[in-house]
Amino acid sequence: GIGGALALEFHRAGFRVFAGARRAETIAPLVALGIESVSLDVTSDESIAAAVAHISELTDGKLDMLVNNAGAAAHVPALDLDIDGVVRNMFEVNVFGVMRMIKAFSGLLIKAEGCIVNIGSIAPIVPLVFSSAYNATKAALHAYGDCLRIELAPFNVQVTTVITGGVKSNIVREADPQLPKGSLYEPIREFWLKRVQQSQNKPMETELYARGVVKALMKHRKPIWFWYGAFAKLAWWIYHFTGKSWRDLVMARWFGFNKLKVIAAQQKKARQWQEMKRKAGLA
Hints:
alpha/beta; Rossmann fold; 10% strand; acylglycerone-phosphate reductase (NADP+) activity; transmembrane; membrane
């Protein structure tokens, strides 16, 4: 995935790289190439503290760059979300996990006058529909990074948010995604499936993405927001030159909401007709 490709590209650029993962077997190929592994669960304070202690001992208490790439995603209509399960987990990984990591590693980063890199997304920029909770986590990450950048500037720590477009990734693993039974969006299921598969529709190769990101981060003055990946340039244009109403119209057309509006109106009319007949029968 993206994390492995970034680790490998930094390694090729001459960095000493520590790759964190919950399961050692997932990064075994990277270890075989000389990258050092760290047991890490970004949702656990204890795991993060152990990783900080381990890396600090090996680097004289310094860290030049922290890349927050761990991520979880779910592309489900807002009304069908599992709030206390799926959504809570996404925020734990995508937002709170990043906050935990930065707070825990801040001493090492300040000592090195290093850089924090948060992997964001074009999804909340566009915004891509059927991903409200995922978009919310990435929008929160973008906002967090903007404040963090200002707060850490006095300590010469830079903060970059990578606004990532479509990249080959294993973040969405459902082989046969299904809408929940009774979903209001079943009439436009084909459009929902189109959205689920959107990020993997002509995505940028992971290795190419990693090379571009690492090249940008090798600069002395690093970018504040770095837009990269398939459709990232289009998202940049949308962000800077269009309004929210225009974006709403485009999303409604692309993903079947105009069709759903017609269907919903027909269903409403049918219910009203049935109600009229029922009342007439009762009379």
